[in-house]
Structures are given as structure tokens and as C-alpha cells.
Amino acid sequence: MTSFIDYLIGGVSNGAVIALMAIALVLIWRATRVVNFAQVGQAMFTTFVALTVQTLTGSWALALVVAMVAGAILGVIVQFLVLRPMRRADTSGAIIATFGVLIALQAAVGMIWGGDAQAYPQPFDNAGVVAFGRIWPISVYDFVVIGVTILLVIALSLLFTRTSIGLAMRASAFNPEVARLSGVRVSRVLTFGWALAGVVGAVAGVLVAPSSTVSPTTFDILLVFAFTAAVIGGLDSLVGAVALGVFAGLVISLVSGLSNSGNAPVVALVLLALSLITKPDGVFGHHKARAV
Amino acid sequence: MLSITDLTVSYGPVEALNGVTISVPRGEVTAVIGANGAGKSTLMRTLAGLVTPAAGQATLDGEIITRKRPEDIVRMGVALVPEGRSTIPELTVEENLRLGGLWRQKSDRRTTQAEVFDLFPVLAERQRMRADTLSGGERQQLAIGRALMSNPKCLLLDEPSLGLAPLIVTQILHLVRRLADETRIAVLLVEQNAVTALRMADTGVVLNLGRIVQTGPAPAIASDEKLRHAYLGY
């Protein structure tokens, strides 16, 4: 029983990172009906940028901020170079194009920083916290990861519910024509959405890096988990992305702990398939409202 | 005043509008009537910038609005309420309204919102409810309210009566009449429901297969039996 609870606790911070990556996927999907498979490639690129900054300055926080800025810029570049020219093509073409961007980014990272896995310095204490006479499977750094994720989720929900750009983003996602007729410059709003998703993905990358290593393909597995969480969550729903992201973290931790970590992606894909068969709109999807 | 001159729109080889010329003075309601496929919605969508015309132009108080983007046209003072209650069901009533004037100064937006609430008191009562909880008539009021939030000089209404009960249609069209009288907005209305539309309009325009067959005072159009039989089907 103790180990069961330990596995659950140990999965929370990993779940937080998956939730962030799932949010990035949902942000783009809601606005454009495109699943941006390049998101992990963008995150990996910005994590290498962060690693460079961290190596040069020694500052974890500065590296995080630089990665966020780079994530925004890279998101805008991907949208301008690849997605804008494909606006008139169907969305399946655009989705395949995002795969192309992923491969191009992996190649670019390999050329700039090399193809070997590199260690990302551990910014905070990574040892299990000691309390109530035992060592817990959660570290100070895990709390930092969870804290940053909670702050970012709160900031995003405030952005969407309290600001003009947030309302414009929601309106553009639900009904771009009515948004344009209301005077919203929808193409600018979309660009802002790509930048925002880039920032969220960049944070996920920097947060997860110390727990693994960084190489051009390290984050591919994160894509599998984040995509699963986003789809089961309904793809349209930020709440769904957060809830299922954290849930995925717990499941992975349990599966890895009770069997071995190689089984986690298999379990994720089985859950994905089951969800698509039984609840294609996702647990938090709201396609019902669109039909009214 | 909205002036439409020789407007021609083609979808491939099909001409949806052919040399359409209409003047819509401020404070007046101009009703464009015609059967399905006459080009009524194409006319509205072209004026709002969603469709690019092949020839001709439209101006608002002398400024050309054709071949501009929809988001710029609404800022110039022409607001369209598209067919089919164009509210966003996932947003609240207040958010739908705010959306209509998002680009304006907050204080201007507040003033206009108060005016919209005066005109449609039911929207003030339902401010915090999601738009998909409103009835059809209430949602049409919200759609018109959203368009008014841009403080337009010219309001384009595409089939506001579609799918509404006759009593509600009369109420909505009365409100449109009041709007034109009180705010001096130029209203261009397209309707399949010719009888009701002509009863409250100043000018009637009969459109058939993309061409104007008759323009004149609304009562004259309404009482022209030949016109009614030939183009309006009653």
C-alpha cells in the first residue's frame, strides 16, 4: 500500500509536465483544428537554448525565461513558414506538415548541439523530502515543477476569462467568421495562440529536462503521453488537458513502478484506443454545445 | 448613407449578383426581398467583406468598403448580422456583446452596452448566462446587439426572421424600425418574409436571380400584384 501511494505521489510532477505539453497541443487544436506534432520538437529546441544559457550564466530562472521567449518566437516562425502558407489546404495536410517540422527541428538540434544525450543540470535538491520520519518520493524540485505548472495554468485561465485577447482567442476558435465580423483580427489572434503554445511547451521542456536528459529525440515519448492526455481530455478542453495530463503522470508512475517503465507507452496507447472507441469526443469534450 | 453601385459577384461561371445598385439612406430601412437563390445573402456577405465582388463597389458616406477585410469594414461602420442567429453559444451573453466592440475604447463600449441593454432588456437580465440557454428570439436580439456594439452607421440584417415564430418576428422587426428612427442608422434588411418586411420598411427592392427587377416605396411594392405573383410567390 505504501509503495502504491508512493508511486502516485512520484507521478504528480511528471503529470504536471505532461499536462503542460497537452495544453500546448490543445491551444493549437482549438484555434486551428491542427494537432501540432512539432510541439515537442519546438520544446526540445528551446530546452537546448535554455541549456546553453544555463551553462553560460548558471542561472536556472534566466534559462527558463529565455526558453519561454524562444518558444514564443519559434511558435510564430513555425506558423508563418509552414501553417500560414497551408491555410487553404485541408487540415490533414497541415498535420503532416507539423511532422515535417518536427523532423527538421530534430535535425537542426543535432547539427547545432550534437546528437548525443546531454545531462541538464539539476537546479534544486532532487532528493526525496524527509518528513514525518520517512523519505517521501517527491523532491524540492518536484514541488518547483508542480508550482510553476499551477502558476501557468492559473495565468492561462485568467488570460482566457479576464482579458480582451483571451475573449478574442475563444471567439476565434469557436467561430472565426463571427469573430471577424465583430472586428477581431483573427489571423493575428492565431499567431498569438502559436506563440502562447510555444511558451507553454518551452516551460514543459525545461521542467522535464533535469529528470531525463536532452537529445534530439528525448521528448518524443512526451509527445505520446501528452497527445494521449489531450485526446482523452477532449482536445478542445484545457481543463481536460490538465486533468488527463496529471492522470497520465500517475498511471505512468504506477505502471513503471509495478512492472517496468517500458510498459508505460503501451498502457498509454491502450488507454487512447479505449477512449477513442468508447468516448470519441473525450471526457471533457463539448461537441454537444456546437450542435445546438 | 450606404451606396451600392453596379455590384457584380460571380461564383465561377455563375453570376450571383449582376449590376446591383441600391441606396440606403440613414434613418431608413431598405428591404431587399426575393425568393431563395435570388442573391440576397451574397449581397450581404459581399458588403461585409466575406465575398469579393467581380465588379462594382459600395461606399459608406463616400468611403469605399468593398474589397476590404471584414474586420476593417466593421471598424468603418458597417455591421452584419449573418443568417442563422450568429451568436457564439459557448460564450455568455455579456461576452458575446463585448466581442462586438472588443476593438473599441472600454468607456465607449460601456456606453454602447448600456444602450443595447435599453433596447433589449432581456439581454441585461441574462448577461451571465451562456448564449445557448437563450430562446431563438432572444438569441436574435443578442446577434443584433453584438452588431450594434460596434456602433455602426449601417446595419446589415440577413434574414432575421428565419426560424422564428411570427409574433417574435414582428417584435424584432419593430425593434429594427425603432433603431432606424431613433439612432439614424441606415438599415439594409434582406428577407424572404416579404409581407412583414415591406410593412415596416421605407423602400423595397425586389431581387430575382441576381438582378434588381423593381425598386420603390415599400407600400407600392407590397401592393403591386404582378410583382408579387411573379417574384414573391404569393
* Helix proportion of chain B: 40-55%
> Rounded to an integer, what's the Rg of chain A over CA atoms?
19 Å
Whole-number tally of structural domains of chain A:
1
How far apart are the termini of chain A? Answer: 47 Å
Query: Number of helix segments of chain A?
Result: 12
The N- to C-terminal Cα distance of chain B equals 32 Å
The major pleated sheet of chain A works out as:
2 strands, antiparallel
Biggest β-sheet strands, sense, barrel of chain B = 6 strands, mixed
Q: CATH superfamily name of chain B?
A: P-loop containing nucleotide triphosphate hydrolases
List how many beta strands of chain A DSSP finds.
Answer: 2
Rg over C-alpha atoms of chain B, rounded to the nearest angstrom:
17 Å
Describe this structure in words.
The complex is a heterodimer of chains A (292) and B (234). Chain A has twelve helices and two strands, in the order ααααββαααααααα. Chain A is mainly alpha-helical. Chain A has one domain: ABC transporter involved in vitamin B12 uptake, BtuC (Orthogonal Bundle). Chain A has a two-stranded antiparallel ribbon. With 234 residues, chain B is α/β, with parallel strands linked by helices. Chain B has one domain (2-86, 153-232): Rossmann fold (3-Layer(aba) Sandwich). Chain B has helices at residues 40-47, 70-76, 93-100, 106-119, 121-125, 136-148, 166-183, 194-200, 218-223, 225-232; strands at residues 2-11, 14-24, 29-33, 55-60, 63-64, 78-81, 154-158, 186-191, 203-208, 211-217. In chain B, the strands form two sheets. Chain B has a six-stranded mixed beta sheet with strand order 6-7-8-3-9-10, with helices on both faces. Chain B has a four-stranded antiparallel beta sheet with strand order 2-1-4-5, with helices on one face. In chain B, strand 4 and strand 5 (63-64) form a beta hairpin. The A-B interface holds A 164, 167-168, 170-171, 174-175, 177-186, 286, 289-290, 292 and B 48, 50, 69-71, 74-75, 79-80, 82, 86-91, 95, 98-103, 132, 146-147, 149-150.
